[in-house]
Amino acid sequence: MRDKVKRPAGGRNHPKADVSPPSGVPEAFVMNADDSSFPVKVQGAGLEMFEMQVHGFWQVQDTVMALTAREEVCPRSSFSLALAGAPLDPLVDLKSLRGLRPGSVLRLVEEPYSPQSARAHLGRVLELLRTSGPQDALKEGRSPSVLETLTNSPGAAKDGGSPTGQSLKRSLSVPKAEAGVQDGTPPEYLLPGSLERPLMALLPHSSQTEGSIYLRDLSLSCWNPPPGHRKLQGDFLYVTVVTLEGSRYDVTSCPKGFYVNRSTEEVFDPRPVQASPLCHCFTDLLGHLSPAFKQALSTAKTRAQLPPAEVLPTPYRTVCWLGPAAISRTQRNTFSRLGLDQQAAAQAPDWNEELQAARDLPQGTLEERLWRDRTLLQVNSAFVLAAAQGAETLVDGFAETVSAGREEAGFLWGGVFMSQGSSSAGGERGRRAAQRLELSGVQAYSDLGELQALHTLPTATVDYRGVRLSAQGLAPGSDGPEPEAEPEADPEADPEAPAPPPSRGLMYGLNAGPQESPRRRQLLVLLAQSAKALSLQRHAVLGPAGYQVPLFTSVDAQGLLGGDGRFYLLDLVRTMPADANFCPEVEAAERALTAGGQVEEKVEEVKEDEEVKEEEEKDKVEVEEELKEAAEEKEVKEEAKEEVKEEERPKCSEAGGDRWPKSYHSDTGLPRRYPHGLCRLRRELWHAFVQHKHTQFNQRVRELMEEDGGFEECAKPGDARATKAVRAACEEVGSVSHLIFEMRFNPNVFCPGVSFPGGDSAATRLQERLLREAAAFIIKQQIPDFVDYCLQGIEVPMDSATLKQALHHWGINLRYLGHVIKAISQSEHKERLRHILRVALAEVVVRSARRVFNSFVQSVEVWSLSAAVSHFLCCLLVPQFTPATAGEEPKKKSKRRGGRGGAGASETPAWSAPTGAALTGPALWNLVRQDALETYDITAHLGASVSHVVEQNGLQRLSLLREFCLKTGVQLRLRDYCLDNQSKAPIGPDDVLNIFPLVKHIHMPVSDAFKAFRAAQTFIEKGLLDQAQERLKETSYLFGRVCDELHPEACHCLSTLARVTFLQGKTAEARSAQLKAVMLSERVLGFDHPSTIQQYALLAVYLGAGGEKALAQKCLLRARHLVLTVHGEDHPYVATLDGCLGLLLTGEAAGQYLESALKLNMSFFGPTDTHTALSQHLLSQWLCSKGDYRSAMSHEKEAQAAYSAMFGEDHKQTKGSAEFLRTITQQAVRVERSRREAPDVTEPAAEGLKPSSETVLEQLALLTGIRKNAQSNRLQEFKKRFWEIKLAEATEKVKVINERLVSAKTKREGESTPAGAAAGGEGAAGAAVCPENGDGGAEHPEEALPSGGQEIRPAEEPSEESRPSAAVNGLPEERSAPGEPEQRETEREEVELHAAMNGGPDVEGDDAQHKETETGETVRPSEGTVNGGEEVKRAGSHEETNGVNGVHDDDDDEDDTDPSGLEKKKEHFVEVNAKSTKANEAVVNGVIVVNGGAGNGVVVNGAPEE
C-alpha cells in the first residue's frame, strides 16, 4: 500500500508543474537539492524532437508526468521512457542512470491501455478541449483570477513584458472600472462620496460561448457496456462522436488505442472499419475523421497560454459568493456523458492508509522532506474534495445511513465516514462545537512533527445546507496477524488477578483498564512527549471502578494500536484546557472541592487529637515537670503554626488564591453560562499567558533577591538565597515545579463528571487558579492590548476573515466579540475605532443569522431551496419585509410557474421560522437579537432592526450580504442589487444559483519553506536585503516544489520578494513577482479578500515605477472598488488608496482623492500623525500645481505643526516642511508681483514645486508601506542614550588630553624660563579649561592654549548658526540671521503676500529680501548627496562627537611629553572620532532601515529621503 502513495508528484488529476528553480536562485541552493537541472531531448510516439529540462533527483515517473503536462505531448498518456533502446524503471532516479547526460535522447514508448488508463486518457482529452477562463471558475464556485482580464496580457505575469492591451481579444465584456479609465477619468461610482456599489464591474461577464467548438457531441455509445465475448477480445468501451461536419462515428477503446467500428444507432457491429486507422491517442483519430477538428485543435495549441499558476487547480477550493451573470448553460457537460464521474465515485480509497503512509515517508534529506510534504498535501487535498462531494451526496439524499439511530447516524461514501456527532454536549450548538474542537485537536497533534509515530486520522468538517458533518478516514481494525503465543499461566498465580491485556486494540484511556505491556509503555512515552510539547500536565483521574487512571491528555481521548501496527489517538475534543469564563460547573466544582478539603482537614484533626490523648495517657506515670514542659512545647508549636497561617493568608490573597479578581464579576459579567459546555481556550492564548507569567516570574525573582541582600550578591554561584527566591517566585506565579519555571495545564479541570484523587487536591486547586487567571487575562490584558494595537493603525481588519485572524492572533475566541465591542464602546478613542466596531457588529449579526439560517434551511425541501434562501435574505436585509401570501399573487404569475419543481415563495405558504411562527423581517431580527444575547451578551448595539445597525454604525447591507454568503456557501448571480428598496424584494429565487459545501480541514505543513521564509524575515529586520532576497527566492522555489506556490504563505513570500527587490532598485523583478502574488492571492484567498486588495495596491506602485501609469491606475481603482464592496468608504485603507490615486491621476479628480485621504486620516489618526501630515503635504503639493498657494500654505502649516509636535523642531522632517512652506511663500510672492506688473504674462511654476517622478514614486512607497515610517519612540530613546554615552566617553578622553597638554606646556615653559616656572605652571594649569568648568582661571585663556589658542572640548549639539544646512529640492537650506527664528521670515513673507494680493504697497524685490536673509547667515555645504539632492543631516546628531568606536589611544606611537605629538594626536583624535561618529550615526540610521525603510513623513520634492 505504501507503494501506492509513491505516485507521480502531480497527484490526483493534478498536472505536474515545472519544478525548475526560478531565476536568481543561488547555485549552492540548487546543488543542495542533490543535483542541478540539465537538458535532454525527447522524441518518439509520432512527435517531433524537442528539448526539456530535467533534474537528477527526479524519478523516471516524475519525468513522465512532466512530459504529460508539456504542450507537445498533451493529451498523450500511457507511455514509458527508454534510453538507448532499454526501457527505464519508473522508480529509478535519473541521476543513477548510466549514460544519461546533458543532450541525451529519451524515447517515448507507447504502452497498452488498461480500462482505467483508457478512461483517464479520455478525461485528459476532454480537459484539453474544454476552454478555461474566469467563467469556468465561477460556475464551479471557485474564486477566479481577474488580473489577466484586467491587464489584457496573459503573458504579463510570465515574462514581465509591458502589456499593451492589444495582445488578447476576449469575448468577455469590459468591466466598467476598466472602461472608465480609458480617458484618464475614473468612473463616477469610484469617486469619493459615491454611494453606488455596482457588482457587475467586479468580475468579467459574458453572454456568449467562450472558446472554440471542436465537436458537436461526444458521449458514451448506446451499446455500452461491451458484451462478454467482446470484453474477452479487449473492448473497454464504445464512444459516439458527432463531428462538426455532421458525420457520426462509433469508436472502440481497446488496449492498443482507438479505432472506428461499424456500429450504427440500429445495428451493433464491433468490427473495425477497413479504412479506419488504429491510433494510440484519441485526438489523432479525431483529427483523421474531422478536418475541422484538426484545424480547431491546432489553432487552440498556438494561442497564448496562461501562466501555470493560473491553470493548475488549487489544493482546496476557495468559494466565490458571486456566480455567472447568465443563468443558462452554453456548453454540454460531456465529461459526465462519458461516465467518468460515476467511475471515479465508485472507487473507495483507504484514506487513512494513504495519509499514514505519506507521514511515514523518510525526512532525512531535503528531497525526502519535500516529497513527503507534497505527498501529504496531495492526499489531504484529495480527502477534502472527497469529503465535500460526500456531504453533497448525503445531504441531498443520495445515500443511506450505515448505522442505526437518527441522532448519531453515520454514512460511508467514497471511503470517508461521515456523521453529525452526538448532541450530548449541549444540543445542536454543542454538537457543532465538538466537531470543530475535534478538528482543532487533530491539528494540534499533527503539528508535532517530531512525534511521527503518533498518528491521527484524516479529519475534516463540512457545512452544507445547514448541516455540519464530520468526515474521517476509517480507523484500522484490530484484526491482523495472530499475536505470538502467550506464556502458559502460572498455576500458583492469583486466580483473581486481571487477565493479560490484548496485543491490539484500546491501550490508553479512561476505559482501557489497567494494562502493562511493552507496546503500551511505548505509547505512554509518546503521549508524555506530546504533553510536554502542548504544555499539558500529567495527572490522574478516578475511573469508573474507583481506581486511579494516569492521563497525559483529556479524559475523552483514547489511544489504540491499530491493525497496521501504528498508534492512533482518537476523540481529541477537549485537548485544550477549559475557558473558566464560560464554565457553568466552575462554582459547583469549587464548592465540592472546598467541602472535600474541609472533610479531609477534620479527619486529620481527629486523628491528631486521638494521638495526643494516647500520649497523655501514657505520660501520666511521668513526673509533673515533664508534663509541663511538653505542654509548653505544644503551645509554642501551635502558636508557630498560627503565625505561619497568618503569614500565608495575605500572600494567598495577594496572589489571587483560587478565586477570581476583585469585582471581576460585577465589571465583566463573567463567569456566565454559554449555550454549550465546550468552551476551550486557544493555543495562542496559552503562549501569551505563559510569556506573561514568565515575565512576572523574572520580576518577582529579582525583587526577592533585592530584598534579601541584593541581586548581585544573591546571583553568585552556590548562594542559597537565589534558590529560595526561585522557589518562592515559582509558588507565587503558579509554576507546577518548585525548582524551575514550568507551566503545565490540566485539560480535565472544570470538566463535568471528572473526579480527581483526594491526594491531588492541592494540584487541582492550582490548576483551577491558573485557568481563572488565564480567563481573566483575556479580559484584562489581551482585549485591551488588541484595541490599542488597532488604535495604532497596525492591525486594520476590513472584514470578518481579517478580524477573526487578528483576534485569534491575540488568543481571543470569537465568543468574546461582545466584550471587544464593549471595550471599543467604552474607549475614549471610540470614534477612531469605528471601523473595528463596524466589522465586529457585522460579525455578530452574520454569525447569529447563520445559526438561525441553519435551523431554517434544514426543514426546507430541495425543490424550494432557491425561494427559501432568497426569502431569508430579504427578511435579513429589508427591515419590514413581509412576503405576499399565495392568494395575493396574480394569477398570471401562478400559471406561468406551473409544476412543483418551479414553485417559488409566491406559491408556497409563508415560510416558518425555527420557532414555528411565520418568518418575516421583524421576526427574523428578533431571533438574531436573541441569539446575540445568548452568545455574545450584546443587544444594545443591534437596535430594533437592521436599519439601526446600518444607520448608527455605517454598516453596508452589501457587506452583510457578502459575509452571509461566504459563511453559508450561498452563491448569487452576478448583477447589481438594490438593497435599499423597502417595497420590493431585492433578491429573487433566480438570483440564488447554488449552495456549496464549506470545508474546514487540517493544514499540512511546508516546513522547509517556512524556515526559509523566517530566515528571510530575519535578514530583512537586520537590513540585509541581498541575503533576504536569496532566501525569499529559495522560499518561493520550495513552495513551488510542494504546492505549486498555491498557498497563502507563498503569496506573502512573493509580495515580500517584490518589496525587497523594489528597495534594491530592481523594478522589473518586483513587478514580475507582484503580478504572480496578485494572481495567486485571487485564486487561493479570494478575488475580494483584503489581502488581494493590498496586493493590487502594491502592484500599482511597481507598475508606476516601470512607467505603466494607466495600468497602475486600473489596479488602484479596482482595489478601491473592492474595498467599497467589502467594507465601505469609511476605512483607513481607503485613505491609502485615495492618496495613491491622487498622485497618479491628473485634473480635479486627483484633488478629490487627496482631500478624501486627508479627511479620513484626520478622523482616524488625528492631526498629529504621520499619515495626516503626509496627506497635508500631498494636498499642498497638488494645490501648488494648481496655483492655489494660499490653500497650499495652510495645509503645509498643518503638516509642519504635526511634524514639530511629533519629532521636534530639529527633526529633518520638520525642517523640510518648513523649507517647503518657505518655498511656497516665496513663489506666491513672486507670482503675485508678476501678475501685478504684467497681467497678461503667466508666471511659470517654480521648479522646486513640481514633483519629479522619483518623488512621486517615493511618496507612493511611503503611502503603501513599502517604505515604513522610521520615526519610533524606542529608537529615539536609544539614540538619545547612545549619544549621552558617547558624549560622556568623549568628555573623559578630552579631559585626559587637556591634562596632558597642560602638563607638557608647563614642563616646556619651565625649561625655557626657569625663573617663572612656578608662576607659569600655575597659570597654565589655571588656563586649561576642563569640560566641567568652561570659565577657566585666566583672563585670556587663549594664551594658555597651545598652537593657535584652540582647546579641545567634547562635542556638543551644533548651534543653530553652525548646524549644517538641510537640502530641500536640491538647494541648500537658507537660514535666518543668528538669533532670528525661521518662522519670523516666513511670517514676514506671508504679510507681504497678503499686502500684495489686497492691493497694498508693493513688496521689495528678491534682492532686498535675500540681503536681509543673508545677513549674518552661516551656510555650509553638505558632505553628501541623497537622490541628487544635498544630504539632510539628522537633527540633534553630534557630528563632531569624539566617539570611541574604532579609535584607540596608542601610547607607543608618540611621546606624551612632546607638545607637537600631542597636538597631532589631538587633531587625529578629533578627525577620526568625527568619522567614527558619522559612521555610528549611519549604523543608527541603518537600524531605521532595518525597521522598515526610509525616514518618516514628508518627502520633499526633488530630494526624496532614504
Protein model, in words:
With 1506 residues, the protein is an alpha+beta fold. The strands form eight sheets. Strands 2-1-5-3-4 form a five-stranded mixed beta sheet, with helices on one face. It has a five-stranded antiparallel beta sheet with strand order 11-12-15-14-23, sandwiched between helices. A hairpin with a 2-residue loop joins β26 (1425-1426) and β27 (1429-1430). α28 packs across α31 (921-936). It is globular. The N terminus and C terminus are likely disordered.
Summarize the structure.
The chain is an alpha+beta fold and 1506 residues long. Helix content is 49%, strand content 8%.
SSE diagram, text form:
Layout: H1 2-5, H2 27-32, E1 37-44, E2 47-55, H3 60-68, E3 79-83, E4 86-87, E5 105-110, H4 115-129, H5 134-139, H6 147-151, H7 156-159, H8 176-180, E6 217-220, H9 228-231, E7 237-242, E8 248-254, E9 257-260, H10 282-289, H11 291-302, H12 308-311, E10 322-323, H13 334-337, H14 340-346, H15 351-359, H16 366-395, E11 410-413, E12 416-419, H17 427-446, E13 454-455, E14 459-464, E15 467-473, E16 505-508, H18 518-533, E17 539-542, E18 548-551, E19 558-561, E20 567-570, H19 586-618, H20 624-655, H21 664-668, H22 683-707, H23 711-714, H24 720-733, H25 761-791, H26 800-809, H27 817-825, H28 834-857, H29 865-877, H30 891-896, H31 921-936, H32 946-953, H33 957-968, E21 970-973, E22 992-995, E23 998-1001, H34 1007-1022, H35 1025-1043, H36 1048-1063, H37 1067-1084, H38 1090-1105, H39 1109-1126, H40 1132-1144, H41 1148-1165, H42 1170-1186, H43 1189-1207, H44 1212-1237, H45 1253-1264, H46 1273-1312, H47 1317-1327, H48 1341-1344, H49 1346-1349, E24 1367-1368, E25 1371-1372, H50 1382-1397, H51 1406-1414, E26 1425-1426, E27 1429-1430, H52 1459-1490
Parallel strand pairs: 1-5, 10-21, 13-20
Antiparallel strand pairs: 1-2, 3-4, 3-5, 6-7, 7-8, 8-9, 11-12, 12-15, 14-15, 14-23, 16-19, 17-18, 19-20, 21-22, 24-25, 26-27
Helix pairs in contact: 10-11, 15-16, 16-35, 22-24, 25-27, 27-28, 28-31, 28-33, 29-31, 34-35, 35-36, 36-37, 37-38, 38-39, 38-45, 39-40, 40-41, 40-45, 41-42, 42-43, 43-44, 44-50, 46-47, 46-52
